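Box S1 | Example of a co-folding query
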Amino acid sequence: MWDKLVSYQAKIADRRFETLVDGARAAGFSAQAGDMRLDYAKTNIDETARKLLCDLLDETGVAAKRDAMFTGEKINETEGRAVLHTALRNLDGDAVTVDGTDVMPEVLATLDRMSAFADAVRDGSFAGQGGQITDVVNIGIGGSDLGPAMAVKALAPYHDGPRCHFVSNVDPADVAQTLAACDPATTLVIVASKTFTTIETMTNARTAKAWMGESVDEPAAQFAALSTAEDKTADFGIASERVFGFEDWVGGRYSMWGPIGLSLMIAIGPDAFRAFLRGGQAMDVHFRAAEWHENLPALLAVVGIWHNQVCGYATRAVLPYDNNLSRLPAYLQQLEMESNGKGVSMDGADLPVHSGPVVWGEPGTNGQHAFYQLIHQGTRVVPCEFLVAARGHDESLHHQHQLLVANCLAQSEALMKGRDLDEARSKVADKFEGDELERQAKHRVFPGNRPSITITYPQLTPFVLGQIIALYEHRVFVEGVLLGINSYDQWGVELGKELATALQPVVEGKVSAADKDGSTAALVDVLQRHGL
Ligand code: F6P
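Box S1 (continued) | Returned holo structure for 6-O-phosphono-beta-D-fructofuranose
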């Protein structure tokens, strides 16, 4: 099947896809889930390519694997785990069984406990030793940070709770600067760690506890924990009523829908948090029911596969024209690259094609004044993913929002159309002539024919954010199935962790660096001479 796709792509590679784009194509090469629309008309995918891609979905058994995921089968085979983050947003409570037990009563009970705690923090019935909680500090890293940090920023217009801060890096600058802005007597510290062993998180948590202990009698009373390891949270001294547990079938980078989302829930309130869950749930329903050619996650996945594995474009830019989504690219870097950045398929064989792409991006319009130069005129094609709302949150500045949207639409148009030499020449013909005109014109040529997709939605509400995140989660799932990858483990992060543990006594000067390779030993030496 890959061969068919690759040979068809070779046949149409030089075609200017702009010639395909008429009004009918806009309708035929877009799909809708509720009010959210995915437009992939500005790509070189035509009926034949789409048919081949949908055949790939069928031949790979994506539908059966999707159903296996939703029904609690242990599709994370290397860790022997089910993959059920979808249960966390299954607000109707329909039974979902793992090892013969319906997990939903426990999921919904935890959601209720979180809601009661969030309400108590927000209304002051849970207070710090100096009064009502003014600041919440979430200490976590990776999936225990990026999801809630991204979402708290995304839903800033809905904040009516205490200020939220996020500490993730073991760099002391992160924790020190964050805590310096907070009053220990009115701060709640949330230690978010699925395993409760992650060295960065536990180091920062101990630092925060010591900081709080300098000012209040019972620092642990202002700590909450979010973890699957409830024994370890007790060892840390956090009372069980402020421990919110979850199960190993929630992957770290898929965990913001449950307890790991507590900081978000405190920021926007339990009702808005449930609206976020409902958005995710709506995307689940769509993903399970819609035909492939109408199915947003499946289409997003096959467009990704087309550009990366078939066309060979190694990276993918995520460009939200929505400043509140400024952390979305960082969030998606973990979601996509930790999930599908693997060279071995589920059965242990080498992948026959490349693993998932490098994902990167920044909000528009900032990116336009930074790296869009390369996107438009560089020698490598970067497929772009634009996200844009019809409305912002400030009615009085709607004219500014319209300018934002104009910029977004202009970029995808420019990427598609480009500017040929004749047009470039005409732009500067009044200033130059002869050879100099030719030279100057060439610098102003845009190759065009560069693909992009655009995701539109009415407004970035909690519900819509839920739709967006679930859309990307399922896209990663589908791409993983097509590549034969286990998207739910992350063995590739382990080696660096092991070596860091071994290097700690070396950098502390307790153990000689002589056993290390020459480069590492020299780096330790130079840093130690500068005061390490
Ligand atoms: O280092 C990778 C990782 O295991 C991620 O997958 C995870 O999201 C992150 O570390 C944090 O893990 P934990 O929540 O267990 O502290």
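Residues 141-144, 193-195, 198, 201, 252-253, 338, 490, 493 surround 6-O-phosphono-beta-D-fructofuranose (CB under 6 Å). The chain has a mean pLDDT of 97.
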